[in-house]
Design a protein that fits this description.
The protein is built from three helices and eight strands; from the N terminus they run αββαββββαββ. The protein is α+β, with helices and mostly antiparallel strands. The chain has a single domain (2-17, 48-191), classed as Regulatory factor, effector binding domain (Multidrug-efflux Transporter 1 Regulator Bmrr, Chain A). The chain has an eight-stranded antiparallel sheet. Helix 1 (2-19) packs antiparallel against helix 3.
């Protein structure tokens, strides 16, 4: 139930941020948004544990993507400086959300082994969430993810599924180098 509330808060916040932009400044979509039928939607998977280095943070929905990109840049710079090899796609672990913003861990998986010897004060080392989850795929702009989250919430309601209090976005395209409208994001909702 809490995840449904969190997902609804995400949807409302993104919708409010989009509505705040004057209509003349919003680019009309080239075609109506649609759920990608070729991509998994609500596919049950089991998330395995990954060693991660992460930067904790908080942001408001108006600057969500920019805040996450800056956090990933900081983690990647640290890994490069320490010569630690990334071992998987970047991920955001949402630990709390409300109508105005969210708390997160911007994480990069690293090869299994010992944690880094030293970490900056604002970074941590740990393990990614594990367990039974539903996988959803979003393609396109980060600002358009409200449509995907709305569909996820509806799916959970229809199937009467009980989800945990956190969810994960895993970036199949690198958000640091990919045009925002070309993003491919896997969203994982962990089940109780």
């Amino acid at each position: 139930m809490v995840v449904r509330s969190l997902l609804r808060a995400v949807i409302l916040a993104i919708a409010a941020a989009t509505a705040a932009v004057p209509a003349a400044a919003q680019a009309p979509p080239s075609q109506p948004p649609a759920v990608q039928t070729a991509d998994p939607f609500g596919e049950e998977v089991t998330l395995g544990e990954k060693a991660i280095v992460f930067k904790k943070g908080a942001a408001n929905w108006d600057s969500a993507f920019e805040t996450l990109v800056e956090a990933f840049k900081a983690v990647r710079a640290f890994l490069d400086r320490e010569k630690i090899k990334a071992d998987g796609p970047l991920m955001t672990i949402y630990t709390a959300t409300d109508d105005t913003g969210f708390q997160f861990e911007a994480a990069i998986p690293i090869a299994a082994g010992e944690p880094p010897k030293t970490l900056p004060k604002d970074m941590g080392f740990g393990k990614s969430p594990t367990g039974r989850a539903l996988k959803f795929v979003h393609r396109g702009s980060y600002d358009a993810m409200d449509t995907t989250y709305d569909a996820i919430t509806n799916h959970l309601d229809e199937k009467k599924l009980d989800a945990k209090d956190l969810f994960i976005e895993q970036y199949m395209t690198d958000p640091l180098t990919t045009a925002e409208d070309k993003l491919v994001v896997e969203v994982y909702v962990l089940l109780r």
